[in-house]
Amino acid sequence: MDIPALQQRLRRFADERDWQPYQTPKNLAMAMTVEAAELLEIFQWLTPEQSVALSDDQRRHLGEELSDVLLYLVQIADHGGVDLDAAVERKLAMNAIKHPPLKRS
Amino acid sequence: MDIPALQQRLRRFADERDWQPYQTPKNLAMAMTVEAAELLEIFQWLTPEQSVALSDDQRRHLGEELSDVLLYLVQIADHGGVDLDAAVERKLAMNAIKHPPLKRS
Amino acid sequence: MDIPALQQRLRRFADERDWQPYQTPKNLAMAMTVEAAELLEIFQWLTPEQSVALSDDQRRHLGEELSDVLLYLVQIADHGGVDLDAAVERKLAMNAIKHPPLKRS
Amino acid sequence: MDIPALQQRLRRFADERDWQPYQTPKNLAMAMTVEAAELLEIFQWLTPEQSVALSDDQRRHLGEELSDVLLYLVQIADHGGVDLDAAVERKLAMNAIKHPPLKRS
């Protein structure tokens, strides 16, 4: 996935619809959370076991909600001045320090 | 960003910590929403204008929260059987149909 | 608002629909978050000023979403064994200590 | 629970700290969602069974997060011009129509 190219496409998409005034990081963060909750809704009444064995319809729905979250996420990074690839690498390194692997005997 | 490679790294990370039993799509969806709200928290009392002009500290914090959301997002796609690159392209096509661009005179 | 009476009504409502198996605190917490995000959606593209001056339709919609959140909230308290009236009083006391009032000259 | 009296106390609390400029319905909706997600976090890695049998510590924590959500909820109703008691009764009536009870033989 080419994040900078995706961000360019989304900027052009917003420009062609005069959406720029709405696209503050604050508003985009709200929109991303709304989409995260729509994804959460898929799973709210499922047992853990059911959540592992999704139907084709549920999987297609999940793909749409994951995409909605991701599209807002890359726009927040863009408008907030965050290099997402670099931030992810830094976070992975932090996580490895915070949670050391189990010692296996 | 190489999504399948990232998913592989996160699977190995979870394996080395015996986290697999916790990683149902249901639980991962909850965790992603929690991280989305931590990102939201950065902006909750800011004016729209302040949310556009983040300090270096705020931008670093934003990068961490964006990464947390993204890392859960790619794990949900992985454990839920969703091809994220394909899902995003399909969603972009759907969005273009749903929201036609403005006609400019 | 009589919280225990409301909790009783919601238990009977769930019983009459065989919803008890779904009503774990975990699932109810997910449902409450989903409703909180539906409320958030009302405001996501509004300016702060617009969010203060809602139309009658927006106010009616807001009332429905507030109610949805509240109904799940009292059910979580009920199923989680929390005395909500007491918890709120304790939290108000904690907040007063955490955030002392401004000294006025 | 006396909602109007609680709203009065929270208005005075905000006044004594000069918080009024921050308390738009938009910002309060963000804050409520952040608190809902902190409640969600309690349950994210628990099994459904564990979520039913909370420890005293978890129950105390749950009471704090429920209160945080409720305190923002009544402030949104207050600043958004919603009569919460009336809205809840209307929603209960709507839910009874939307979800008819099961017929028992």
From TrEMBL, chains A, B, C, D:
Domain of life: Bacteria
InterPro entries, per database record: dCTP_Pyrophosphatase, DCTPP
Name of this protein: Nucleotide pyrophosphohydrolase
UniProt source species: Pelomonas cellulosilytica
